[in-house]
Amino acid sequence: MGLGQLVFFILLLTLHLFRHFGGHKWINSFMISLGQKKNIDLRIDSPYPSITQLNYEQEWKLKSQWIDLAIMGLCFLLYNKSSTLIYIEIQKYGIPYLLLSFFILLFLQDTYFYFTHRMLHIPFLYKKIHQVHHKSKAPSTNAAFSHHPAEKFIELLFYPLIILIIPLHPGALITFLTYSTITNFIGHSGFEIRKIPSIGKHHNKYMATTVFHEMHHRYPNKNFGLYLTFWDRLLSSTDKKYEGRLSNNL
Ligand SMILES: [Zn+2]
Ligand SMILES: [Zn+2]
Predict the structure, then answer these.
(1) Within a domain: residue 44?
(2) Which terminus of the chain is less hemmed in, N or C, by CB atoms within 10 Å?
(3) How far apart (Å, rounded) are the C-alpha atoms in residues 144 and 19?
(4) Ligand nearest to the CA of 125
């Protein structure tokens, strides 16, 4: 294993630990103090989770974490067999492609997530698999990675597939994974950082918000997107009350 691979591996492992042991409590405190600093109440109109809910989520996070490790192992195995399109030399495709590949990943994963997520809402699969995630009614960062192992497998399968299909630099991958982790935490936190004007001014209607995903937990047959509202808007699966809540900052 070369130095680059070792660094990549350590970063992935750190991210994994952050995902599975990053607690609701400290993200909650961070959001509250950030709001106080900015003199803005970042909380959305939703209840706080009970201790029972938080413990339930932590339990499922731990029960399904071995899937993350197995998928990570599969990606390394594919890479070592030279089956992937992962490249190390940035000059091979240039810096514009390196930046573009982040957005390609974002759109492709959102697309993959939207359709697999809708599939998981088929009553049989919902009852057997996806309802583990939906048991979290009140927003909680613990819920971000609290899933049935089968759901985790379906969602993470995106990674071994994508490294076979498009050229990706490890730097783009790790940046995207970090972005995905933070977005997932914030999306489940019950706090809306878009309320901070310097962040809110960059918001556009195709970017998913905390309210967007909170509504999915409340009304499970709407708002299926992960990072974007693109597919929900195109396929009319956005909750009708969403725009109202967004404009009222709730
Ligand atoms: Zn969720
Ligand atoms: Zn769902």
Answers:
(1) no
(2) N
(3) 8
(4) 2
